[in-house]
Design goal:
Blueprint (H helix, E strand, L loop, with lengths): L2 H22 L4 E9 L4 E11 L6 E7 L8 H11 L15 E9 L2 E2 L2 E4 L5 E10 L4 E11 L7 E4 L2 E4 L5 E2 L2 E2 L2 E2 L17 E9 L3 E4 L2 E7 L4 E7 L9 E4 L3 E7 L2 E7 L4 H22 L6 E7 L5 E3 L3 E5 L10 H13 L7 E3 L9 H16 L10 H4 L7 H14 L18 H21 L1 H14 L3 E3 L1 H12 L4 H8 L7 E6 L3 E6 L7 E6 L5 E6 L5 E5 L6 E4 L15 E2 L3 E5 L18 E9 L3 E10 L3 E10 L4 E10 L7 E12 L6 E11 L13 E8 L26 E13 L6 E12 L9 E15 L4 E13 L6 E2 L15 E2 L1 E14 L4 E3 L4 E18 L9 E14 L4 E12 L8 E6 L4
Parallel strand pairs: 1-14, 20-21, 21-23, 24-25, 33-34
Antiparallel strand pairs: 1-2, 2-8, 3-7, 3-11, 4-5, 4-8, 6-7, 9-10, 10-18, 12-13, 14-17, 15-18, 16-17, 19-20, 22-23, 26-27, 27-30, 28-29, 28-31, 31-32, 34-35, 35-36, 36-37, 37-38, 38-39, 39-40, 40-41, 41-42, 42-43, 43-44, 44-47, 45-46, 47-49, 48-49, 49-50, 50-51, 51-52
Length: about 950
């Protein structure tokens, strides 16, 4: 044998020995032949899956996830509707639909295989093998199945002419040293965990359909029956195979290196599609330089009716159609949404992780590097809103970096913090996932960078993304890389920040002429630096390892200033106002004072913030100010002159949030009104204690589950905070003169979606007692109970029925305690009429759409008229004093209109209410016209 051939064979032998583990871990292969009926929204398909046993165990069964087969309980369906309000959309245009995946036959070669569907949610397909599968052996399994695509928004469904198909076929469960990862299908986030696999898909569908697929198109064949067959293949392994379909898709493409970025769009969105492509190109360049090149030839951005911002898949991302309509001043937020989903091509697709249990490795890491991308592009502490000069003077702004921590701080201060690393199903409220896994997760990596240095972190990520390219990684493996590259043991760091709900809060306890005492009011021990500045300008630095509760720093003279953690290395320090001596005070005069200046996110969190300026009301002009310790408490002072009432009114209020580290607020407000009219001077106030019974409200006008205890003097309760704390206390008669009332009210409901319910109920109880205290001269008690119900009558046409029944009882029986006239009661009668000490009220509304999907945008897309509803209503009620028979039932009927507006894309929703009502059987009563916000009930 020639020497060259011997050397070649010897080299091949060594190569085989060296790379044997790599070849043994053969990725799965999928060959799918699918026919999609886009008119009937059905799929007929056959999948051939080649699975290799890469473990050391013999396998007798193989498991797949069949997500479209998910079975939902009534309770789950109701909460889906409720939570949909978070994203300001109704995800089921024709009522709830889930679709289905039905298995017709499973075989291996010509041999049928037995199978069963398991799991509480029926999404696990167990296939029993005809013979055990040993290490290194492969098995080819054929699955014949059908899919029904639901009329639903989201990752699996259709709406209008767009079909979105993500994980629509049987997909292998992951098998590793822990066994099979047969997780349930969590409803509100991504519970996925899959092996990187090769795909070849033959797709037959109508010729007019345009397809955005994972992978690259190899061949297109036109068939004689008006269909076409596409041959699609992935050249490198991917985590899943998804499709976006529409006969109205257009596409704008650009080239970034070896990559073709395809930005699909619907009519009218061509310019935004170009912006999308450029945003994705910028992110691809930024990530490729740090984590290795994007390996695939194509990357797609696909518009979809998602009902939330965006969704990652392999080789492509789906973006909600409303994102394309964001106002111009939010183009950086537009960039954030596109870049976030694009970044998942590295932290989800190329490097896989267990999203059900360790989502930090996906969302946390991606969120941190996305922040680096944004600040690299828009400057340090990049602001979210790019406001024109004409508005910068008026509207406060905030940075992307601030937004990463703000929601976490709210949760932590209200006792809602929890370990980042835990099962998705253990999150009590789905939106907390964003605060903890995304926000806290990104902040943890920012603190890690401070611990190890930016160069070491960059090296960690290079090793991480190279070693686990097309593989799955665990948190333990990530920590091991951090330890190795930093030459430190960082296990304590990750354990404290990711696997506990402990907090860190360093504070200056005292600063005297001889020593400075620091304390850690939390339980996480982080190394911390303290800067001490003396009267002559000299500075010293103290380093504390964080161990113990107290640190006494001896000094020779009284300092001028002390700063704990001056570099903000401990981003998640719970309270940064106590990191400084003396305290920081930020004074901000504003040209017009309004509610935005009381939002903690829009103010510095390391100082007490004093904001003051002129204020304008409907018919009033005045001055307002607030002093706020962000996320903790706020003091409000205002005075104004009402030109209509011709009176001056001054107010002083205070609110303290998260009492006892819970969602409980305590506050008071006092007012003094001086009127030009004799006998109209008035003083009064309120004290309230409010406990939220659910972690989040889903809109500014949403009524969250809660209970409130209050004491009021010469006024009604109304709202208990600026942007939250909505109260619904209607039909009660308040004299607002020499009246002191102790009361309790609240709400409990399971309804949705906000702000136009399809289903559910709402219960509103109130109990009040007036007495001779605080100068009150009235004595009575009264109670009301209200039950509202919502029904979807004709799901296909979105016809809805809403009902309200309300009863009230009070003593003394000769007093005016209730009023039923007006927009919150009997709409055919004037306000403050139909009075008594007892009451009963019933209402029915039939709500039907006049025009849906209007999509009329105006004022730079800040507002969008989305839908107009017509309302037919009937109210009936009566009040009485001691004798029920002393009065009769009053009735009215009318016609109303509801104008549904989207505000700033998908960020908020508002309903403008117009009602025309006429009293029945009382011709002397005039027709009444009412205007308001939200539905009447």
């Amino acid at each position: 044998m020639p020497l060259k051939i011997k050397i070649l064979l010897l080299g091949l032998g060594f190569s085989w020995l060296f790379f044997k583990p790599l070849y043994a871990a053969a990725p799965p292969r999928y060959e799918i032949d699918a026919r999609i009926d886009t008119a009937l929204h059905k799929i007929e398909a056959k999948a051939k899956v080649i699975f290799t046993n890469n473990s050391e165990q013999e396998l007798t069964a193989i498991y797949f996830h069949i997500y479209p087969h998910r079975k939902y309980t009534r309770q789950e369906i109701r909460f889906i509707y409720r939570y949909a309000g978070y994203f300001k959309v109704n995800p089921f245009p024709e009522g709830f639909q889930s679709g289905d995946l039905k298995i017709l036959r499973i075989s291996s070669g010509s041999q049928p295989l037995t199978y069963s569907i398991e799991g509480a949610d029926q999404t696990i397909l167990k296939i029993q093998l005809d013979a055990s599968l040993k290490q290194g052996e492969s098995k080819e399994i054929s699955i014949k199945f059908t899919v029904n695509i639901p009329h639903a928004f989201g990752r699996f469904g259709w709406h209008k002419d767009v079909i979105t198909l993500v994980r629509w076929y049987p997909i292998l469960s992951v098998f590793d040293k822990e066994g099979w990862h047969n997780y349930p299908f969590y409803l509100y986030h991504l519970p996925h965990f899959s092996e990187a696999s090769y795909y070849r898909v033959k797709l037959t569908l109508p010729c007019e359909q345009k397809v955005a697929p994972t992978g690259s198109l190899k061949e297109e064949k036109i068939n004689s029956d008006g269909t076409k067959t596409l041959d699609i293949e992935t050249e490198f392994p991917v985590r899943d195979f998804s499709l976006g379909l529409s006969n109205n898709f257009e596409v704008y493409s650009l080239t970034e290196g070896k990559i073709r970025i395809n930005s699909y769009y619907l009519k009218g969105d061509e310019e935004k599609a170009k912006v999308c492509a450029n945003f994705a190109s910028d992110l691809v360049k930024f990530y490729s330089q740090r984590f290795g090149e994007y390996p695939y030839r194509d990357f797609n951005i696909v518009p979809s009716y998602l009902a939330y911002g965006g969704l990652q898949s392999s080789g492509q991302v789906f973006i909600d159609t409303r994102v394309y309509k964001l106002p111009g001043f939010l183009h950086r937020y537009f960039d954030f949404l596109i870049a976030h989903e694009t970044g998942h091509q590295w932290f989800y697709n190329i490097v896989g992780s267990d999203e059900y249990r360790q989502m930090f490795l996906d969302e946390g890491i991606n969120s941190y590097w996305l922040l680096q991308y944004l600040e690299n592009k828009y400057g340090k502490d990049a602001l979210v809103m790019d406001l024109p000069k004409s508005l910068k003077w008026l509207i406060p702004n905030f940075s992307f970096r601030q937004s990463t921590t703000s929601r976490y701080l709210y949760l932590a201060k209200n006792g809602l913090d929890r370990p980042v690393i835990s099962k998705l199903s253990s999150f009590q409220e789905p939106s907390s996932i964003f605060a903890l896994t995304y926000g806290k997760g990104a902040a943890v990596l920012s603190m890690l960078e401070k611990q190890v240095g930016s160069e070491t972190l960059a090296r960690i990520m290079q090793v991480y993304t190279t070693r686990f390219r097309f593989k799955n990684v665990s948190l333990t493996e990530f920590i091991n890389i951090c330890n190795q590259e930093s030459a430190q043991d960082l296990s304590w760091f990750f354990q404290e920040w990711l696997e506990t709900k402990d907090t860190c809060d360093y504070a200056i306890k005292s600063a005297g002429p001889k020593n400075i005492t620091l304390e850690n009011r939390g339980s996480i021990q982080m190394p911390v630096k303290t800067k001490i500045i003396y009267q002559d300008g000299k500075e010293t630095i103290d380093q504390w390892d964080g161990k113990g509760k107290l640190r006494v720093i001896p000094i020779a003279e009284k300092p001028k200033r002390v700063e704990v953690d001056p570099d903000n290395a401990i981003i998640l320090d719970l309270d940064r106002t106590n990191n400084y001596w003396p305290k920081n005070v930020y004074v901000k005069p504003v040209p017009l004072y309004f509610f935005a200046y009381e939002i903690p996110l829009l103010l510095p969190r390391d100082s007490y913030n004093l904001v003051l300026g002129p204020s304008v009301g409907g018919s009033s002009l005045g001055v307002a100010s607030s002093l706020q310790k962000p996320y903790d408490n706020i003091l409000r002072i205002s005075t104004d002159y009402d030109f209509n009432g011709k009176n001056f009114e001054s107010k002083l209020g205070y609110e303290f949030d998260h009492i006892f580290n819970q969602q409980t607020a305590l506050g008071f407000e006092i007012f003094d009104r001086e009127s030009n009219k004799e006998g109209q001077d008035l003083s009064g106030g309120k004290i309230y204690l409010r406990r939220e019974l659910w972690p989040a409200s889903y809109g500014l006008l949403d009524l969250n589950d809660h209970i409130s205890l209050y004491l009021i003097r010469d006024q009604r309760l109304e709202s208990t905070a600026t942007l939250s704390g909505k109260e619904e206390i209607n039909n009660l008669y308040y004299r607002r003169k020499d009246e002191a009332i102790l009361g309790v009210t609240g709400s409990l409901g399971r309804w949705g979606p906000y702000s136009d319910p399809d289903y559910g109920w709402k219960f509103l109880p109130t109990l009040e007692s007036a007495g001779h205290f605080l100068g009150g001269n009235e004595s009575f008690w009264r109670t009301t109970l209200e039950l509202d119900n919502y029904y979807l009558v004709l799901p296909k046409y979105q016809h809805k029925l809403a009902s309200r029944i309300k009863a009230g009882w009070g003593e003394h029986s000769d007093e005016k305690l209730f009023q039923l006239g007006g927009p919150d009661g009997l709409r055919g009668y004037s306000r403050k009429t139909i009075e008594g000490s007892h009451m009963i009220l019933g209402s029915l509304e039939y709500r039907l759409p006049l025009k849906s999907d209007i999509k009329f945008y105006f004022l730079d897309n800040i507002f969008c008229l989305d839908k107009i509803q017509s309302i037919i209503f009937f109210d009936v009620g009566r009040t009485w004093y001691a004798d029920f028979d002393s009065s009769h039932f009053k009735k009215d009927a009318g016609l109303g209109f509801r104008f549904h507006f989207d505000i700033i894309g998908f960020l908020e929703k508002m309903v403008l209410r117009l009602d025309f009502a006429r009293a029945l059987g009382e011709p002397k009563e005039e027709t009444h016209f009412w205007v308001g916000l939200s539905h009447a009930f």
